[in-house]
Amino acid sequence: MSWRPQYRSSKFRNVYGKVASREHCFDGIPITKNVHDNHFCAVNARFLAIVTESAGGGSFLVIPLEQTGRIEPNYPKVCGHQGNVLDIKWNPFIENIIASCSEDTSVRIWEIPEGGLKRNMTEAVLELYGHSRRVGLVEWHPTTNNILFSAGYDYKVLIWNLDIGEPVKMIDCHTDVILCMSFNTDGSLLATTCKDKKLRVVEPRSGRVLQEASCKNHRVNRVVFLGSTKRLLTTGVSRWNTRQIALWDQEDLSMPLIEEEIDGLSGLLFPFYDADTHMLYLAGKGDGNIRYYEIGSEKPYLSYLMEFRSPAPQKGLGVMPKHGLDVSACEVFRFYKLITLKGLIEPISMIVPRRSETYQEDIYPMTPGTEPALTPDEWLSGVNRDPILMSLKEGYKKTSKIVFKAPVREKKSVVVNGIDLLENVPPRTENELLRMFFRQQDEIRRLKDELAQKDIRIRQLQLELKNLRNSPKNN
Fold first, then answer.
1. Can you say where the WD repeats lie in this chain (predicted)?
2. Spatial distance between the Cα atoms of 38 and 48, rounded to a whole number of angstroms
3. Is 184 found in the same domain as 113?
4. In this predicted model, what pLDDT tens digit does every residue of 177-217 receive, in sequence order?
């Protein structure tokens, strides 16, 4: 019998990327030049938020999605942080609430007015202090309202209950900086990657590490739960410094199910997973292309589909939630690409080519909606519940009726697990001490220059006074 190649049918094999026209992009934005490995961009069905380059603290823009085109240089900003903003995330259930974290060790919650900002916003509705060093990551719980996770350079993950404005749990199992956090579908498990080259699956309420992998051949950078398949996907670097992805069974991290090398480039690979279509998107920081795959339940698990190519390199990518997509155009995913060199935010729609203009139920199954499944007290007491699903055919324009109410509280010590987080500061690392030393040296040089300038000015004034006294008029 003659050998025939195995043919694999897929409704997504012809998905293509469509870049928005220039008038539907966001232009003239001073995108931050910070080298922190985050997206610096967050998007929902109403607003686009971008971390910007600014002097004297951190700030970010919040732009209504319909306000495309060129953004004025004096456009109002959210600018209450004293240090650079490192991460921003929209609340999945309240569309005008956004969380930000910064080098000033704080996490802040902001309430954006209807129609966007009319003036600079400096007052957050809630300021959260519990980390002793800068905070690099924030993540909202996927099924519970007002539960926020933050990861700091003090190697701790704090769980905040925003109903009371306090940290209620602390995950203290990491020995180095946390690089990435990802939840499973119902939020009962948290996967983390860390600079100590370990991948962990943690039960967040107890802080107990359920599974741990020491990745020596595959140095992990990013991790994402693959929906309800009980699998994880990580991106990282192989021992030969090539970019690599690995697929893991969440209940056994002793060995990856598969490892696949991508290319020899050096930029970080960001993974994005769409649980509705079982599609995985890989976008490299500093690349212009986005590869996409289909995830299967049987070997080889990962099937390459196609690649979107662009000459403009991306600094980060925002992703539109499902209920914000254009279902009439068969759009299954939408990126917002940050192009730093042009100061441009470019929407990229991933489209399934279909001739019919009717609603395509096979590519739009029921999807997690804008209603929380649990209250903070229910989740903290140990209840797990799958997200409340919605149909994109009927309810994708429905707005949430939940309103955020900030708790009134006094500033005091922050005690979690019997430890005062603001008092119990870990010892500074060698890099932090070096940074402090160089900062102090710069400040000393600046003060010396100021003194020298003042000394020169005093001598000039003395000379002018002497000339004035010796002038003929005074004689």
1. 78-120, 128-170, 171-212
2. 16
3. no
4. 999 999 999 999 999 999 988 999 999 999 999 999 887 77
